[in-house]
Amino acid sequence: MERISEEQYRVVPGMDVTIVLDNIRSMMNTGSVFRTADAFRSKQIFLCGFTATPPHREIHKTALGATESVKWEYRSDCAALLKELRTQGALVVAVEQVHGSISLDHWTPDPGQPLVLVFGNEVEGIQQEVLQECEYALEIPQYGTKHSLNIAVSAGIVLWETYKKFRHQIQS
User: Fold this and answer.
1) CB-CB neighbours of 64 under 10 Å
2) pLDDT in tens, 121-167
3) Cα–chain-centroid distance for residue 94?
4) Which of 22, 60, 130, 159 might form a disulfide with 48, Cβ 3.0–4.6 angstroms?
5) Between the CA of residue 70 and those of 38, 83, 148, what are the distances in Å?
6) Per CATH, which fold does 15-169 belong to?
7) Which of these, 94, 91, 145, lies nearest to 121 by C-alpha position?
8) What angle do CA 37, 55, 16 make, to 5 degrees?
9) How many whole angstroms from its chain centre is CA 156?
10) Tens digits of per-residue pLDDT, 90-109?
11) In Å, what is the CA distance from 35 to each residue of 42, 76, 90, 139, 142?
């Protein structure tokens, strides 16, 4: 299947995309996001607030070793982290249903600018003080009776769309 090793993963080019998980309740969701981040060679993951951190059996169940390949760090204060990332030149974007959000199918990011994607709590979403540190919000179009998706599913959809736009950064 021509998979790269963990050592190769750390040195080959990937997407300049950082994922921020803020106050995620489910460790299985956290593990799933790690695995998706690995699949698309995301730069790193920041775990914020009460989001659990590896090593943990529940995270490992769904991450399947991706906590070893994907660089990650814990930060207690998500808003302060986002301020820091913005001063480093990153475009910070919330993935949230809010007034004025951009539909994912109409989104055109600049592949030359580092991107930070922020995902929030499964029930409450992204906190207002964290949203205020984001340049704008992306919303996944939904056409059924429910207008919410599991965070791991949302991360998969958004990272796939991001990959399609940034794929030139990734080399086999």
Assistant:
1) 13
2) 999 999 999 999 999 999 999 999 988 999 999 999 999 999 998 88
3) 10
4) 22
5) 6, 22, 27
6) Alpha/beta knot (3.40.1280)
7) 94
8) 25
9) 9
10) 999 999 999 999 999 999 99
11) 10, 22, 23, 22, 24
Radius of gyration of the chain (CA): 15
Q: Which two tokens stand for residue 13?
A: 């080019």
Q: Quick one: which H or E segment has residue 119?
A: strand 115-119
Burial tier of 45 (Cβ tally within 10 Å: 0-12, 13-18, 19+): buried
Has residue 56 got a pLDDT over 60?
Answer: yes
**Quick check: 3 pLDDT over 90?**
no
Q: Tokens representing 113?
A: 């600018």
pLDDT above 60 (res 64): yes
Amino acid at 57: R
Angle between helices 151-166 and 27-39 (to 10 degrees): 10
Region for residue 125 given its phi and psi (left: phi exceeds 0; alpha: psi -120 to 50; beta: otherwise) = left
Would you state the structure tokens that stand for residue 65, as one six-digit string?
């070793």
